[in-house]
Amino acid sequence: MDPDACCAIGVDGTRCALTTVADSPVKLCPAHLLAAYDWVARDVGVADLLAEPCLACGARVGVRYPSGWICATCEWRVGELPDGEVLPVRVDVVYYVRFEDRIKIGTSGNPRLRLAALRFDELLAFERGGRSVESKRHAQFAAQRFPGSEWFHAHPALIEHVRAVANGVEDPWQLYSRWRSEQLALRS
Predict the structure, then answer these.
(1) Three-state helix/strand/coil letters over 146-165
(2) Domain boundary assignment for the chain
(3) Which of 18, 58, 73, 180 could disulfide-link 29, Cβ–Cβ 3.0 to 4.6 Å?
(4) How far apart are CA 16 and CA 28, in angstroms?
(5) Residues 47-75: pLDDT tens digits?
(6) Phi, psi values for residue 44, rounded to 5°
(7) Distance CA 180, CA 88 (A)
(8) Whole-number Å distance between alpha carbons of 140 and 144
C-alpha cells in the first residue's frame, strides 16, 4: 500500500488511489479534501465578501451556508429587507485620513458617503464620536492646523494619536461595521 495514497474509502469499499496533498493534516487527495471541506462548510459556513453591503449594518463580510448568506457582523439574512419602521443606523465617527504629508480630522454620521467625496491617500482610523470629539481633536492639534481648514501637518504628536486610536484595528471599516451592529442591537 502506498503511504502517500489517499485514505478515503468509497461506498464500494475500495480505497482511493490518488496521491495526498503534502501538507494536509489528514491523508486525503485534493478531491476528497474538497468534499470534506464542503461537508463541514454546510454546518459552519464559509466567510466571504458580500456582493453589496449589508442592508442592516453596512458590513461587507458575510457567511455563506447552503441555505443562503448572513452578515458576519450582525447576522442579518442577506436579501431580507429591514422592517420599514427600522431607521437607518447612525454612528457618528471622527475620521483621520492622510493626503501626502497632511492629515484631515473630520466627522460624519455617514463616513462612506463623506469619504467618497474627499481626495485622500489612506484612511488611517475612525474614532467614535461626533462634533464635540472632533472639536477636541482640532483644539488638541491646533498648532499643526492649516489655517481655515480641517487639515493638519503630519506632526509626530498627531501621528502618535492616530496610532493610539487605530491600535489593534486592522481595518477601520470593520470597526465601523461593528459599531453599527452594536447600535442596531441596542434598538432591539
Answers:
(1) CCCCCEEECCHHHHHHHHHH
(2) 1-41, 45-87, 93-187
(3) 18
(4) 9
(5) 888 887 777 777 778 888 888 888 887 77
(6) -100, -15
(7) 10
(8) 9
Burial bucket for residue 23 (CB in 10 Å: 0-12, 13-18, 19+):
exposed
Q: Encode pLDDT of 83-117 as tens digits.
A: 655 566 789 999 999 999 999 999 998 898 899 99
Cell of 184: 442596531
Task: Confirm if 63 and 70 have CB atoms less than 8 A apart.
Answer: yes
> Which DSSP string do the residues of 70-138 spell out, in sequence order?
EETTT-PBTTPPPPTT-PPP---EEEEEEETTEEEEEEES-HHHHHHTS--SEEEEEEE--HHHHHHHH
- Grid coordinates representing 81? 429587507
Q: How many Å apart are CA 56 and CA 82, to the nearest integer? A: 6
Length of the chain as a residue count:
188
